Amino acid sequence: MQNSAFLYFLTLMLFRQKSKHIGAIMISVIIIFLLSAVLFISSSLQYSLLATLEGQADFSVSRVQAGRPVNTPVEWVERILEINGVSHVAPRIYGRYFFTPREKSFLVVGIDFFDEQNSKAMEKLIEEIDLKRFLSAESMLVGEGVKRFLEAHYFKNDFTFKTPKGTFKKVKIYKVLPEQTNLIANDMIVMPLELAREVFGMRDDEVTDITFNVPNDAEWDNIITKLHLMFYDVRVVEKREIKKAYENLYNYKGGLFLILYLVSIVTFMLVLYQRYSMVYSTERKEIGILRATGWSIKDILRLKFYENLIIVIVSFTVGVVLAYLYVFIFDAPLLSQIFLGGANLPNRVSFIPALEFGILGSVFLFYAVPFLAAVLIPAWKIAVTSPREAMQ
């Protein structure tokens, strides 16, 4: 068969049955768009969180009593420094401050701004801060979510904390943390260590936990053993555990959408298969005429294959491009809240493009193979019949 005749019939089939093809493309685009958008969001959030995690300390140590976390003695800092292989030991104070009237909370983090490890972890948050001016008064840095919440409740330039001792502590809002840190800092308040200790009513010899690094990865398990031997009431959290928890969280949420995608695609393919199994008489006659004029079964299947391959490629390309624009240009309104959550302060995040082409390739195969099979099998059943029977 000449290529010109094949291309002519291929073009004719595409335009002659364009209403049927447009319907299949629209449904396919919606399915691929939703799954691609979820995968883009999940990949971007994991990339951003894991990149942020790289700047955090390797370990954090806190004290527990009867399975309940309690304040950690500052003297533990000197004892941890005595362990060979440990570096950048720093005390830290953090905890949730609840704004009772509205049942909302802020994550208050108190750090030593002159400590090397803390400065590295908070580098992106405080890179434009004049520390001398910041530390000259009782000030704090707040996330965008905190700033919007406080302004809505008439706290424009400062906020008054109620301490556990029943006193009030007025703290100036020095600056809003950068927008690109919203993923981790939206509901965060950063303040000096001593000020945070006063807000939470802690003694001068107490902190929430102690962070440190172990440059040699091979020593991590050994260091954990030494800590448990040194302190009987210690809890050690590794950076690896936090990383794994983040991965599991977003893989779980993305997996739920993958299951819904598979259910949707199977349902769509079953409908498509039934549609092509009950081929209209005109379409049956077309195949019969082609067989009668000398087209082989292979030629007919090739025609149907390329016809629907074009539909598959167009649908997949449009769905992925729309998902990319929706997530990375418009920041995925509505759908992003499924991943970010809205139980506390509303968050607005700018997603960083992080594409996993292996996953997109798998999505294409999961979509293309069932789609083509649902079309080619009924076409093959007609093509193998005699031309006279097909044209009846």
Automatic annotation (TrEMBL):
Localization, UniProt: Cell membrane
Keyword NAD: no
Domain ABC3 transporter permease C-terminal: 259-385
Keywords: Cell membrane, Membrane, Transmembrane, Transmembrane helix
InterPro entries found in the cross-reference section: ABC3_permease_C, Lipoprotein-release_system
Gene Ontology CC: plasma membrane protein complex
Pfam family of the protein (one): FtsX
Residues annotated as transmembrane: 21-41, 254-273, 309-330, 350-377
Main location: membrane
Membrane topology according to the record: Multi-pass membrane protein
Presence of the UniProt keyword Kinase in the record: no
Swiss-Prot/TrEMBL GO biological process terms: lipoprotein localization to outer membrane
Stated family: Belongs to the ABC-4 integral membrane protein family. LolC/E subfamily.
Protein name: ABC transporter permease
Gene source species: Sulfurovum indicum
